[in-house]
What does this fold into?
Amino acid sequence: MQPPEFVSLRRILYELHAVTVTLPGGGCIGPITWRLERARHVRVTCADDAQWLGLVTLLSGQRAPTSGRLEEVVPVTVQTDARVRDKLDANQTVAQFLASPDAPEHIWLEGRRRDLLVLVDLLELSPALRRRPFKHLPPEVQERVWALHFMISRASLLIGRELFRLTDPILREVLRRRWSDLAGTLVAAESAPPLPGPVDTWLRIAPDGSVSVTGVGAPAANATPEGR
It folds into this structure.
């Protein structure tokens, strides 16, 4: 049997020890002392775009801490909603994506293992729409395809803000239903409308850059084999 401390460490992705990050336009965020764990949903509130970008670039490895120490406890793959959107192939159809190795055959939805097409149908991506290249889809359908790619990412750390600002009721409902079964750990910026599901941790960045991290409830109802 593995010692308890070893089992506990396996749940940790990053340990941040008094980390500060200098922002390009001046100012900084931190210090941040935090253990970012697997299968958690983290709500982030911040004063402006620069603070959010500073946090994202830190967690995605694009920016090193100005001071303090960030330790990657296990290998972490990071995916952001902006990167998913920017990397979508404008000439690829949804049907081509669904037939590719990048698309899983099954996903977890509301605690049940389901065929991926259940999620596709909930997003109202009809067979006709699936045959059209991404660049020829209506804007609201492009947003749903973007969301589909993000929601089935195999990354161990998902970071999102722009996706959760969309107000399409169909998309919002699917995000709500998929929320607790998203693979990996989710760091999401609170906005209007609010996040579509419960969170375990609240990370607040104040206007002066100071950071507080508090737990807000039990771990997400996310104990499925996917991404574990």
